[in-house]
Amino acid sequence: MNSVKGLLAASVISIQNSCFIYPACQNCFSRLILDSRRFNCLKCGCTGEAQDTSYRYRLSLKIADTNDLFDISVFGSCLDPFFGVTAENLQRYIQDFNQLSGETNAEASTGALVQAVETCFIGKRFIFGV
């Protein structure tokens, strides 16, 4: 899963979605199903308390090299340096902000984050391991 088969130098054209963090299974990294008290992994069957949920980065990008366009997803801790914190800490900051501001619409509170990510990535050239 982590073996790089080649390198691709490409520029980011767009961010494909506004969900950069997801609740991740600690065993298989699949997206967890969360309710108010528990989490459940549909892939491996892992369960636990919602408060113990781990989070992981997933950044979906449209990129272009000199010849082609590609859709690519970048996962995990390799994004920590770009965001300045782990996905788990960023999720905690977002939750704390929503509680302190009284924001009930999670989509509205992530607008500034989406804009910051677009500013940091769109138009920039990176080397992707594929």
Automatic annotation (TrEMBL):
Domain Replication factor A C-terminal: 9-95
InterPro entries from the UniProt entry: DDIAS, NA-bd_OB-fold, Rep_factor-A_C
GO biological processes: negative regulation of intrinsic apoptotic signaling pathway in response to DNA damage
Pfam families the record matches: Rep_fac-A_C
GO CC, one annotated term: nucleus
Secretion signal span: none
Name of the protein in its database record: DDIAS protein
Originating species: Sakesphorus luctuosus
Lineage, broadest ranks: Eukaryota, Metazoa, Chordata, Craniata, Vertebrata
